[in-house]
Design brief:
Blueprint (H helix, E strand, L loop, with lengths): L2 H22 L16 H14 L5 E4 L3 H11 L4 H18 L4 H30 L4 H23 L10 H10 L4 E5 L2 E4 L1
Parallel strand pairs: 1-3
Antiparallel strand pairs: 2-3
Helix pairs in contact: 1-5, 1-6, 2-7, 4-6, 5-6, 6-7
Amino acid sequence: MSDDDIVRLLDEIPLLYKVRAFADGIVDGRLFMRLGDPLDEREADLSRSYLDALGFPHAEPGLLTSWEEAAEAAEALDFNPEGWEAEEMLRAGLVAQAAERLDESAIQTALEYVGLKAGEAAQDAVAYSASLGDMRDEAVLNAAAGALVQAANGAALVILAEAEDEDPPHAFLARWRLFVRGRWPVGLAGSTYNIL
């Protein structure tokens, strides 16, 4: 191992600790606990940050009030991939930025750890919230849990790219913060950003 390799590894440690702290903090009693409640001002601001960063300034947040509405909105995403495509472009940019700071195996390991922690938190939180809302459709529950894991990985990429202090927040941080506030941001359909 060369001196350059050692220096690079030492430079990676603080970022990896930040991502680990993020992942370890995912367990939060508020996940999926404000589903269907009116959007507050902060949630509207986070939605606006997300939409603007994705390039959809004409779109508006739309409140979903039930698990059933969320299921219908999630199905509509298959027919309206624009939001997903915009997210993929942002994700590719973050991966490139992170690769300037960390080697590929460090990024992969960090994201796997975040996925593990987010998956554990998502399963418990979705199951509890669904029991309150009398939702038993496994496909819908898996979609909600998967969306949380995806959002956590997006937020972790923002940290790895050292873009977490941007103002307004990066689109992936804005979406993650909606989850942390107890929401399920289902996704963009047409000109509506559906949020349960």
